[in-house]
Amino acid sequence: MITTRHIYIGSDHAGYALKQYLLDAFKEKNFIDCGVYSDQLSNYALVAHDVALKVKNEPKSVGIIICGTGIGVSIAANRHPGIRAALCHNVDTAKTARLHNDANILALGARIVDEKTAFNCVKIFLDTPFEGGRHEERVSSIDYYGEKP
What we know:
This protein has 149 residues and is an alpha/beta fold. It has one domain: Sugar-phosphate isomerase, RpiB/LacA/LacB (Ribose 5-phosphate Isomerase B, Chain: A, 3-Layer(aba) Sandwich). Helices cover 44% and strands 14% of the residues. The chain has helices at residues 16-25, 44-57, 71-77, 91-101, 115-127, 134-140, 144-147, and strands at residues 7-11, 32-33, 62-67, 85-87, 105-109. Strands 2-1-3-5-4 form a five-stranded parallel β-sheet, with helices on both faces.
């Protein structure tokens, strides 16, 4: 299980209902809701950047971001060095994102995954530790290219 200070969660309008479902399903985890707070039209990138900055500034925290497909939020979050947002559609990809990539943000597509699948992805993401070992060098090299010429 991830030892974390906080679990930040955010969505755009398309992901709002799934976010609310997950907040209710994981009440015991004390997620921090970063918005949006209705299904009114909103900008997925703003929420993704907000969650990514919170996770980046609090190293033991993790995030969950949701939009219609999960693509937009994952692209936006991954613009931040130190963020490894993984777009997952099933428990296998969510588990591998943690095991092999030390993903610190889970991205979900509300129009792609149903509630049960999303619940299971979040559960496995939170319960799976980074495997380390041979994966450590690979993970540490993710930000390298962007920081060095």
